[in-house]
Design goal:
Layout lengths: L2 E5 L2 E3 L5 E8 L6 E8 L6 E6 L5 E3 L7 E6 L4 E6 L8 E9 L5 E3 L3 E5 L2
Parallel strand pairs: 2-11
Antiparallel strand pairs: 1-3, 3-8, 4-5, 4-9, 5-6, 7-8, 9-10, 9-11
């Protein structure tokens, strides 16, 4: 059974930091590209950050320089360090895995991040 379990969301003031973590089980973690997406009500889910099996990263423009994605293949975890948070970062954040061979996607249940004073 595949599980992606996010943690670390919450309420933070503008300019603050949060670290999201995603623990994966039931997948061959090393052959999965891992990513974080976010979604606000009424809008499409958007990719925030992605890390390949080789460790290459890419980010959506709005978070470049503020967010950092990392992975630990020994622990089957992927993290998202979010600094200098802005109110527009408020969303439900989802962990995503994609197998590089089968292209099969899995999603976590989401964790709420709220940036507000």
């Amino acid at each position: 059974q595949v599980q992606l379990v996010e943690s670390g969301g919450g309420l933070v003031q503008p300019g603050g930091s949060l670290r999201l973590s995603c623990a994966a089980s039931g997948i061959s973690f090393r052959v999965n590209t891992m990513a974080w997406y976010r979604q606000v009500p009424g809008k499409q889910r958007e990719m925030v950050a992605r890390i390949t099996t080789g460790g290459s990263t890419n980010y959506t423009d709005s978070v470049e320089g503020r967010f950092t994605i990392s992975r630990d293949n020994a622990k089957n975890t992927v993290s998202l360090q979010m600094d200098s948070l802005k109110p527009e970062d408020t969303a439900v954040y989802y962990c995503n895995s994609r197998n590089i061979w089968s292209r099969r996607d899995y999603w976590g249940q989401g964790t709420q991040v709220t940036v507000s004073s």
